[in-house]
Amino acid sequence: EQIEKGGYEHFMLKEIFEQPKSVHDTMRGRLLVDEGVIKMAGIWDHIEKFKNANRIIIIACGTSWHAGLIGEYLIEEYARIPVEVEYASEFRYRNPIITDKDVVIAISQSGETADTMAALKLAKEKGAFIYGICNVVDSSIARITDAGSYTHAGPEIGVASTKAFTAQLTILTLIAFKLGKHNGNLGNADFMSLIAELEAIPKRIEDVLSSTHELVQNIAKDFVNATNFLYLGRGYNYPAALEGALKLKEISYIHAEGYPAAEMKHGPIALIDENMPIVIIAPKRGHYDKIVSNVQEIKARKGKVIAVVNKGDTQVSAMADYVIEIPETSECFSPIVASVPLQLLAYYIAVYRGANVDQPRNLAKSVTVE
Ligand code: G6P
């Protein structure tokens, strides 16, 4: 096992550090920047289904559901196709309206999650075209879908999903750009600049890993005894906030909630005092001014702010108690880059609390029962 961990103390840390490679591997052979194309056989062979779709319904559980939410932002922004994202467990039991004009995308690292599988079967029975985004090759979900794209993240052992999540985001980005280019909603110049930026994302992740690793480790030390955490973000980074909170609760057992930053005033603000740590994702591109006022409101109530900002940020940084810098990207890529320090933060807080990071209590890597 020590050998499998490749010198890292836990699989989770190894998998966090593998992300430059796993994201790169997920794009390899698909993203051809010089030729200006995205090659995805699963999409291309069924392009009429996507083109004529009334809507896309994404179903998933856990971390994969968070990826799905970001997929909604991506596909609606770039391909202008309506997207709904549902928890598989809710979808399957609520008699959903599904027609043969719907495309249903299931996202699942393991490809074995019982609820996701059952929801897919239901969609298939009702005539929808079903597409899979799985990590495990030849898994049950991969086998029953009409088509799909594998994330090539490699085996993920840590129960808390890290590299599978960023690989899922990579696939969803490719799908959104491909569909948008095809249906004319994403113009050629924008397409070209976005794919060039996407190609450089593994390098951005590498930079973030090396520039934030030690810093985040030190920040984590100050929160070992925290009992609650709030995670806030807007737009693409709202699901990133949900995922950051999920990581922390899964492995450190600290109660954590993710919220859209603007919803803070509808509830969570009542919780803020000097004992409440608040992670706020505030990249420049993405409603920055609105986030600045959220931070002001938090500081007025003495909340402890851990801000994830772009390099060179001044406004939020001046108010924050802790500052984690990530490189500036187009907004659609920021959840990939911002997730990395949040994974590290959850990891180190859990390690300092003496928790079993790779196998947290009560959780399973793959939930094959209801
Ligand atoms: C379990 C795992 C999570 C995962 C979820 C969905 O709860 O602990 O990490 O996100 O299942 O799993 P899937 O394999 O379908 O992505």
From TrEMBL:
One Gene Ontology term of the biological-process aspect is:
amino sugar biosynthetic process
Q: Which residues form the active site?
A: K365 (for fru-6p isomerization activity)
Q: Where in the cell is it found?
A: Cytoplasm
Q: Identify the EC number(s).
A: 2.6.1.16
Task: Give the signal peptide, or none.
Answer: none
What keywords would UniProt list here? Aminotransferase, Cytoplasm, Glutamine amidotransferase, Repeat, Transferase
What sequence ranges are listed for the domain SIS? 46-185, 219-360
The question of whether Transferase is a record keyword is answered with: yes
Give the GO molecular function terms: carbohydrate derivative binding; glutamine-fructose-6-phosphate transaminase (isomerizing) activity
Transmembrane stretches, start-end: none
The answer on whether this UniProt entry bears the keyword GTP-binding reads no
Reaction equations catalysed: D-fructose 6-phosphate + L-glutamine = D-glucosamine 6-phosphate + L-glutamate
Taken from the UniProt entry, a GO cellular component term is: cytosol
Which domain of life does the UniProt lineage start with?
Bacteria
What's the stated role of this polypeptide?
Answer: Catalyzes the first step in hexosamine metabolism, converting fructose-6P into glucosamine-6P using glutamine as a nitrogen source.
Q: How does it assemble?
A: Homodimer.
- Name of the protein this chain belongs to: Glutamine--fructose-6-phosphate aminotransferase [isomerizing]
Instruction: Supply the source organism for this entry.
Output: Chryseobacterium taiwanense
